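User: Quick one: structure for sequence A, then sequence B.

Assistant: Sequence A:
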Amino acid sequence: MKNENKLGKTEAWVVLDAKPDARLVYGIKDGVDSAALSEAAEKGRALEDLLRYVDVKKGDVLHIPAGTVHAIGEGIVLYEIQQSSDVTYRFYDWERRDEHGNKRTLHTKQALDVTKLGPPPEKAVSSTLPLEGTGRLEQLLSTPYFTILRYTNCENALLSADRRRFGMLTALSPARLYYTDRSLQLAAGQTVLLPANGEDLRLWGDEFLFSCPTVK
């Protein structure tokens, strides 16, 4: 993004829960060009007709490359991981206002400059990886910027330390971590930061998500 002297913000969503018929905005409809998108953005609500809506359910994983239009719909709880960046461009805000009646700032021109047209990637398909201990380990997604793993039904499952990168482990149900002669209890939703070159962990719990930078 030359306006900010940055390279964009690739993200990923793992759907943790979703009500029936829940939908996300995930890209722009096929056949929409930049001129049509620009005209609709100037009109506000007209933009909604050009957005691509996808049905989602618990367990879905969506890869959101930088420049992909995206928005969370009603009744969805998700886990988000993203490339390190503090820039978000917004060209529509669903007519929302703050407690003072003011609309949030829009960045229409900048957003249109970087928006990717055409369909986004298909929902990610997981692959099973070997795991020491009882449980299951899946790679949900790997991008040039980050990797997301899921551990399920763990009893003494090994999460090996990695000297090359840090990681973040989130418990999606009550869990316990064991390392050397100590242990740590986690409530559902709690996250721990695992430093590079730290200690091996043994996981006990129903479900964890682990994310880390992708080693190149």
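Sequence B:
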Amino acid sequence: IFSLPRILTAAFSPVFLGRDSLVCIVFSEMNYSLYKRDIPDSLEFLGMIRYLPTDTSFWEPSSVGDSSLALSPVGYKPKFSLDIAQGTMTTDAAMQSGGGIEGMFSDMLGDHRIFFLVYDQAQRWSDILSQFNIMVQYANQKKRPNWGVGAYRLFDYYYNRIEGGFEEENVGLSFSVSYPFTRFSRIAGNTFARYSSRDYYEEKRKGYFISQNISLVYDNSLWWTTGPIDGSRTNLTVGAAMDTKTGNLSSVLLSLDTRRYFRLTRHSCFATRLVGRTSFGDEPERFYMGGTWSFRGYPMYYFYGRNSVLLNAEFRFPLFRRIVLGLPFGDMKLGGINSAIFFDTGNVWEDKFDGLLCTAGVGFRTNLGGYTVLRLDFAWRSDYHRVDPWTYFDIFFGWDF
């Protein structure tokens, strides 16, 4: 047997598929790819054979007694270390901003994880303690089902078009459980027991609430540089919150988010997303929509209500594979630019449905070092009766849906 390699980089994890083909991982063009190679019945002579002397001796391993192979179990005790810590900056619909830190601890096997978040959005020194926010969550992933517990204290200013402005403090405990059926599907549930205090400036609402939700999740998507390119993702969620004093359901939530990616070529696909949400009760949850993450062509938070429906469809393809800048000290290689031709339709309403709106346009995306994606969209609006001649554009960050 003679080795005649033609791979300049490396091949990893070869696996034989029967007797006719071999599958391995190959590093090529700055990416890891999966290659399949048919095994020929006979080898072609390429003039590179090195003959070995017939009297060459072969090394044989020495035998090892069974006693030296005796193994004894060693107890494992989790020891946590800091995996990641990063600064955060937040902003919300009430035009408030805040800064803080978030991070995660885990053990060597990854069975136990501790997440934490600490931030403050006080504008005055006297409000530092009253507007202090902290959340700690422990997750156990040693075996199925995965579970977690946590505690939090959150304060924020809010504004919506129905109730106006208010401030709210939430202090509570959380419990979560997740049972994976397969590598791609799971059922997950969350329970929150919290004390909530809302101040509408003219009246106050205080009470103890219990919230529960359950979700069915499926995700076998295959990602590219700016987002998924193949597979599908679905999340079906049902939730409810109860006021413990009255026993009434303060809100009920029904949500469906399903996405499908039809691979056309190696680096292009046709992507669709359908989202439908509704909420009802004494304090129903209300949904924002608009912006490059949802309904393109409209500003963020443009739509608001307790019912929403949205359909996105787009053709994704690479525009520039790689950009190289020639500089005096050498070449600077930048990521490529991907493009998308999209169509969005949907609406958000409170009680009366006013019909569907739609937008169409083109977008450009580039990956910023693997951390996030820079997005630029140009869109035109329509109500299915006339087309708005104005061109709307939006530039922001975020991965493709």
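The chain has a mean pLDDT of 85. The chain has three domains: 6-47, 80-208, 220-401.

User: Thanks, that's what I needed.
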